[in-house]
Amino acid sequence: MRRALVAITGLAASTTALVVLKAAPGTSQVAQDVPAGQPPAATGAAEDEETSPDATAAPATGKPKATKSARPQGSASATPSRTASGGATRTPSAPRTTTAAPQPTARTVTGPVVSNEFGNVQVQITVSGSRIVNAVALELPEKTAQSVQRSGEVDSRYSGTGGMVVARQGADLDTVSGATATSRSYQQSLQAAIDRARG
Amino acid sequence: MTYPGTYSERRPGHPQPRAGARPPAPPPLPVAPRRGPGVRRTLTTLFLTGLVASVLPWWLDTPAGSLTGTTAMTTAAGQITGLLAGYLLLVQVLMMSRLPVLERAVGGERIARWHRDLGATLLVAVLAHTALILVGYAGLEGRSPLGQAGVMLREYQDMVSAFAAAGLLVLVGLTSVRTIRRALPYELWHATHLAGYAVLLLGFAHQFSNGSQLFRPGPVRTGWIAGYLLVIAALAWGRLIAPLVFNLRHRLRVADVVAESPDTVSIYLTGRRLDRLEMLGGQFFRWRFLARGCWWQSHPFSVSAAANGRWLRLTVKMVGAYTRDLRDLDPGVRVWAVGPSGTFTAAHRTRERALLIAGGSGITPLRAMLEELPPGAALIYRARTPVDVLLHRELDWLAQARGVRVWYVVGSRRDPGPRQVMTPDGLRRLVPDLTRRDVYLCGPPGLVEQCRQLLRHSGVPRRQIHLATFEL
């Protein structure tokens, strides 16, 4: 019985120790956390990128990540690398603008990172003329399986060429039940992107 | 007496330190070579490695400094306890798999003790996991923990079965609390405990549909599933295949039932190829007598004679309905045996000489062990009345053949004789080199505990004290 008490105490102590160790800010991760902690306005330095449908701009800048995600992504110089890589890796199933882009010129506009208690949300829209033709979530909360499931629901309802964003042409979207926070953050990031595209 | 040399053959490189010291007596006495605690240490290391490995995915997944706020910390603690609980559950089932290597290197009794202690830890881990995740997720989603429980049951995948698993585990844990367990009939307790397998099954799915470290396909998920498969393979091997092979090879049957005292019988078993039976004196089997009224129960009894290639014997005191039925076993009844198990053997000694202390029917494993101990052993046999002294003819014969000193200490606990012996001084008077001997204790729990304390007071190191008691 004494051994059981020792084991239980060990369990409690080690769990606490692990959590406390991870709660202490490490030096390497601080840089990564800063953008998420910043207010939307600060990170709202989204890049307007001009791309032709035949993607002549992409080979010109020669960004390897653009080919990986098959998303037209022009000027590499001004885009924060974190946004670019986040978009490239996190939304592999995102609808591609190239397939739905018969229009003469399309611009992609990236919204700011909006963080909530579940994680970060960042939306990128493709605008053709004054029309939103596509919306892609570059980042959605996926810390837990549940989170992933809900993010998936939000993504499938809102994003894509046939999603609610394109249908409504604005950020006034129905909240996805069970994913209120993520829906709101999505709408915030989207609204900022739309403002950016118009301004 | 033909002792098969299987154990010495198996470890040819093992040194035999006694070979030179012993005078060249005409019939060389068979002595079981020592087995070190190496396997046990390896197993402990493996266990700890697995423990670290089970939490490692969480550690690697979680960036430092990301746990800000109590909600995140609570959720993280819930994830850690969940991973640990998942691992401990697997270990718990593995320990009960009757895997031959575990049974022989660690022994059924020690495994049972570990299982008990780890079981308490597992129960706490599961309760902590449930509570922490509920509170953590409730904080994230702005609900009360109870409301969160409702939401998880309704909306999350596989959580109904997970809650059922937790409930079953609590039930299993509660019925194993010593005082509650004593109040329950053994069969009820056993049936409840078998629900542990259901816990394994019911708790399986939610780890993969909701576990943050496990829901993504990848090495962690694969490894976790491999752990499950390994444990199931161990169960199949230890509970099914190994016993099947053993019993098909040896086909044990009851040969005779002989009364040793008014309330004790010896059951002699014969079978095939008993010369190939790898067994050490002091080990036990779990016996199932395939006769009417007995076949559905399996009980552990020590073998009361060392392996001799011709027969096996167990000596059983009749204490309950089941053991009374054993008296009426007919010759020819088939016996299903699982084992051997236990480290209460001459091979696990750490010193050259041994002192054996037996209480009542606790003599049976010691009697078998005496045949394999080096000469110079001593035996103190406590019995309440002269009638309770079992097998004394054999003991006297062994005393002569193997140079064992035997004292029969007969009488009630309060009689002057036993009282005098059962003190540090009394023991030292009988066995002056007490602290340089291995001491093997077997008997009623009260006596074993009393002797253990007595020996510790007398300065016998803990690792030289070997206990055999089936009481958990």
Automatic annotation (TrEMBL), chain A:
- Pfam families assigned: FMN_bind
Check the UniProt entry and state the signal peptide residues, or none.
1-19
Q: Is rRNA-binding set as a keyword in this record? A: no
User: What GO CC terms are in its UniProt record?
Assistant: membrane
Q: Where is this region: Disordered?
A: 27-112, 179-199
GO MF term set: FMN binding
Signal found in the keyword field: yes
Name of the molecule in the record: FMN-binding protein
**Source organism of this protein record:** Micromonospora radicis
UniProtKB/TrEMBL annotation, chain B:
Q: Which residues form the FAD-binding FR-type domain?
A: 247-347
Q: Which GO terms describe its molecular function?
A: 2 iron, 2 sulfur cluster binding; flavin adenine dinucleotide binding; metal ion binding; oxidoreductase activity
Q: What is the name of the protein in this document?
A: Oxidoreductase
Residue spans crossing the bilayer: 43-60, 80-97, 118-139, 159-176, 188-205, 225-246
Q: Where in the cell is it found?
A: Membrane
Gene Ontology, cellular component aspect? membrane
Please give, as recorded in its UniProt entry, the membrane topology of this protein. Answer: Multi-pass membrane protein
Q: Where is this region: Disordered?
A: 1-36
Going by the UniProt record, its keywords in alphabetical order are:
2Fe-2S, FAD, Flavoprotein, Iron, Iron-sulfur, Membrane, Metal-binding, Oxidoreductase, Transmembrane, Transmembrane helix
Enumerate the PROSITE patterns for this protein: FAD_FR
Organism, by scientific name, is Micromonospora radicis
Q: Which cofactor does it need?
A: FAD
